[in-house]
């Protein structure tokens, strides 16, 4: 399954609240992500507010487009927008910068492990 990594910048003075909100993501938001093809989704937050996201999806563009059609995503993105810098008025899920994968360690095959 394709892997995607992205980054955004959380306002340093909003980091604690951002983390708190993500400890209680709405069940309907979790379900919508699952239903639209987001898999193995993680967010990591650095001390200076750099947010790194990782997600697996068959097609990230299709997964994003499907989420954009949900009412719960519109509500979540509206609430989350205030936490970020550099979005120019857009929602966070449309403003992240994708990172290019340069290395991935695959599990060894049986022949390699012998």
From TrEMBL:
Record-linked SUPFAM superfamilies: Dimeric alpha+beta barrel
Protein name stated in the entry: L-rhamnose mutarotase
Originating species: Amycolatopsis nalaikhensis
PANTHER family the record matches: L-RHAMNOSE MUTAROTASE
């Amino acid at each position: 399954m394709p892997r995607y990594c992205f980054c955004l910048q959380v306002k340093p003075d909003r980091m604690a609240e951002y983390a708190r909100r993500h400890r209680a993501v709405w069940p309907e938001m979790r379900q919508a992500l699952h239903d639209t093809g987001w898999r193995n989704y993680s967010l990591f937050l650095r001390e200076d507010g750099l947010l790194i996201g990782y997600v697996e999806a068959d097609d990230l563009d299709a997964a994003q487009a499907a989420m954009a059609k949900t009412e719960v995503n519109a509500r979540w993105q509206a609430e989350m927008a205030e936490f970020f810098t550099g979005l120019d008025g857009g929602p966070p899920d449309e403003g992240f910068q994708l990172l290019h994968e340069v290395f991935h360690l695959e599990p060894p095959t049986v022949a390699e492990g012998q």
